[in-house]
Amino acid sequence: MSYPSAYQEAIESLNQEVSRAQPSDILQFCANFFAQRLEGERADLLAGPHSKPPAMSGSAFPGRFGANSNPFGDGEKLGSAGGISNVIEEEETDTVESPAAPNFSFGAGGSFSSPFSGDGAGQGPPSSFKPAADGFPDQYGMGRRTSVSAESLNPTASSNDNWSPPFHQKTLEQLTRLRKSISGNFLFNHLDDDQSSQILGALVEKPIPAKDIKVITQGDQGDFFYVVEKGTFDVYVNPAGEFQPGPNGLGTKVATIESGGSFGELALMYNAPRAATVMSAEASCLLWALDRITFRRILMDSTFQRRRLYESFLEEVPLLASLTKYERSKIADALETQKYPAGTTIIKEGDAGEAFYLLESGEAEAFKSGNPAAVYQYKKGGYFGELALLNDAPRAASVISKTEVKVATLGKDGFQRLLGPVESIMRRTKYETGVEDIDPLSTK
Ligand SMILES: Nc1ncnc2c1ncn2[C@@H]1O[C@@H]2COP(=O)(O)O[C@H]2[C@H]1O
């Protein structure tokens, strides 16, 4: 008997997924698998003519609450737009619309309807999900979907399939604002021109009119990555692994994200439940939302590689030991590696300071003019170049490579934004001879 090719393709995809995931509850797994494929196709149809149907959106892990159910128990709020449940504000009578829908708007009658159909997703986390002590889930990567869709077979842009990103028309004024918002974001640093214009086309503007709007709810499925154009957002982690109703349901505040920053990448990168709840900290905020598939196809590759590349090295840097794993990943996003042969002047005394350096391998030494002996020695995991940035002063010494070295550099902007929590540790560093003589560390 011959089967329709679409059916054969679907069954093959399911087989691959089952053999990789080895689920214990086969029926639930298959039900979720097909429900989510359907969901992806419908979402795409509703999103308009520019987008092509993804083979599958969402994660295939069986949710504690079953496919398409809301962990907060209000199954009736499930929306069809975006194929996912409404969100977020338990108290709100939300009208559900896909944030990707061109005609997205807030609800009638002046009451806010959450724009985030994607992030109120009904799929709860697997019951084994628990965040680590630092709020960063241990299981990241474990539930990683590796098959099924074109997206996940090859998450990077590839010429051998017919995927193209959604395109949302923008005014010149919107484009100018958008370009400015992403210009300082390290995740967008490594895009070529084509990728940049694809990302600019795919982002959708999302005004957040009020304070305390939950954009992301911990434990939910994630469908969008967000860039902050205006306003601030607070990040909360509940040690139970999900947002819970009640006065302490948010958990502890772990971070604040400001304009130019971004959030919501973890769930998309690792196919994991949302690791934190993210809420507007003031009224009149403005976000740009990027759909999961475009994020995975265009942005994820470099982000993922960069975080992996620096993960183990940054864990061994004593200066960064007090940071959470998440704070270290944000540093990894911003680092650039450079190699220098032995005898290279990496930093020149008296110059203006533009970057901070972590020594990835090799050895280097600091020298001060008039003194032929080295005043400081650097080994793997050491850092230099902080004084000029901390004090807005000229370089206090020259740093010269003693062997071939590999350094990870962090620009001034990243240094100021990401190393705030360890500033006091850097200020405590005692230079044995010379450097502190001309550097007014002690005056701070
Ligand atoms: N300490 C933190 N732990 C986890 N997530 C964080 C933290 N600080 C900020 N976030 C962001 O909060 C987001 C919640 O959704 P995601 O898990 O997709 O991605 C998460 C990160 O982008």
UniProtKB/TrEMBL annotation:
Cellular component aspect of the GO annotation: cAMP-dependent protein kinase complex; cytosol; nucleus
A Pfam family reported for this protein in Swiss-Prot or TrEMBL: cNMP_binding
Biased composition annotated in UniProt, kind: Low complexity: 99-118
SUPFAM superfamilies: cAMP-binding domain-like, Dimerization-anchoring domain of cAMP-dependent PK regulatory subunit
Domain Cyclic nucleotide-binding: 187-316, 319-428
Known partners and oligomeric status: Tetramer, composed of 2 regulatory (R) and 2 catalytic (C) subunits. In the presence of cAMP it dissociates into 2 active monomeric C subunits and an R dimer.
Name used for this protein in its record: cAMP-dependent protein kinase regulatory subunit
Organism field: Amylocarpus encephaloides
